[in-house]
Design a protein that fits this description.
24% strand, four-stranded antiparallel beta sheet, 13 helices
Length: 396
């Protein structure tokens, strides 16, 4: 579950991480009121107006701007709220902005120059350990830094038996070229950031940039946070932060129906039981010359109601030109699945795309007989290759 910047910062602050302070506004008037409040609380004269959407690169799309007075705060907030923000991480249509974060200006003059760093905490799946990735090249696309100057990216892996050790936090501060007060501030920042990551059950914390201010404070100017969905049952305070407006509408609807669904860009809808078989089915579609339009695992109870719900979800995608149902009857009997497909088809009336059904396992022969004798425009298959050939035929 992805969070907005302001929500990620709330979590960071709750674990003692210094953040760029800000207030959320939903219209231009609220933005002006937020700016006045920030000035009273922090003394900031300028304000940064940041679009709150689940996408990076907001500045490149015009979603982050500096306001030097209250009139500019009102004008900029009015421009950003309601716009469709297009960034390198959104679709061509962009994402509609419903709210902005009015933040304090932290690039004030002082005794030393400001510096921007990159830092993230995530799981290294290759080693099964959490790691801190960091770089002196903050404020830039980390992918670009990794490609052009990989020697400027450092990683620090954390042993789960010991957690983050003090020498590791000091090593990170040293590699970032810090000394004195800034060095001490960074070691505290790293320790608090890692604690926030672990204790919030997050799958990623990305701070870009981490700022060293002109008076040697270390703070998070941005926050991109993903919470592990599997842990939300014990982190109900974070579950309440979910913004459904930022998510794929079909995926949200499928989740409410208890279906494991991921929207893709292809032309063949998939309805499968079991994640492994679903992945293999997607490979099958690719080999047949098609592209999977979705990942859909209906689970072990593929009855008529569940199959009908899955049909409706798949058919919401106008790009779908065919549907492949691939069920292995282990726990669930194939004949029951076949009857579910037939009942769902009849309940829905006409389905204007070809349907191929492959059922293997318990009572597969009875299932094929039911499909073949149903009188419906549904093709049955027994073998994987047979299903692939029929997908290829209907696409051509």
């Amino acid at each position: 579950m992805n969070l907005h910047e302001y929500q990620g910062k709330e979590i960071l602050a709750s674990f003692g991480v210094r953040i760029q302070r800000g207030i959320v506004a939903h219209n231009a008037k609220e933005a002006v009121d937020a700016a006045k409040q920030l000035t009273a609380e922090t003394g900031t004269g300028w304000h940064v107006i940041k679009a709150q959407v689940h996408a990076g690169g907001r500045g490149k799309g015009g979603g982050v701007k500096l306001a030097k007075n209250l009139k500019e705060v009102e004008e900029i907030a009015g421009q950003i709220i309601g716009m469709n923000l297009i960034t390198p991480q959104t679709s061509a249509e962009g994402k509609k902005v419903h709210q902005v974060l009015v933040a304090e200006d932290v690039y004030y003059p002082g005794a030393s120059e400001t510096n921007e760093f990159y830092m993230s905490v995530l799981l290294n799946r290759g080693t099964g350990r959490n790691m801190i990735m960091y770089s002196t090249e903050g404020g830039m696309d980390i992918e670009e830094v990794a490609e052009s100057t990989p020697h400027l990216i450092f990683t620090e892996e954390i042993d789960p038996a010991t957690g983050l050790l003090p020498f590791q936090a000091r090593k990170i501060a040293f590699n970032l070229g810090l000394s004195g007060t800034a060095f001490k501030e960074m070691t505290k920042f790293v320790a608090s950031l890692y604690k926030a990551y672990v204790e919030s059950d997050s799958s990623m914390f990305e701070i870009n940039p981490v700022l060293k201010t002109s008076d040697d404070k270390i703070m998070a100017v941005d926050a991109k946070v993903s919470i592990d969905d599997n842990a939300l049952y014990r982190r109900k305070q974070y579950a309440e932060m979910r913004d459904l407006r930022e998510e794929n509408g079909i995926e949200v609807e499928a989740g409410a129906l208890g279906l494991n669904y991921v929207d893709l860009d292809g032309n063949v809808g998939c309805m499968v039981n079991g994640a492994g078989l679903a992945m293999a089915t997607m490979d099958l579609i690719k080999q047949a010359g098609g592209e999977p339009a979705n990942f859909l695992d209906v689970g072990g109870t593929a009855d008529a109601a569940r199959v009908e719900a899955a049909f409706k979800i798949i058919l919401k995608d106008p790009a779908v030109k065919a549907i492949l149902i691939n069920i292995f009857g282990g726990i669930v009997r194939c004949d029951r699945v076949a009857q579910g497909v037939i009942d769902a088809y009849k309940n829905m009336g006409t389905i204007n795309v070809p349907i191929i059904v492959r059922l293997q396992g318990t009572n597969a022969d009875l299932a094929k007989e039911l499909i073949d004798n149903s009188g419906l425009d549904v093709q049955s298959a027994v073998q994987f290759q047979e299903a692939a050939d029929k997908v290829k035929a209907v696409l051509s």
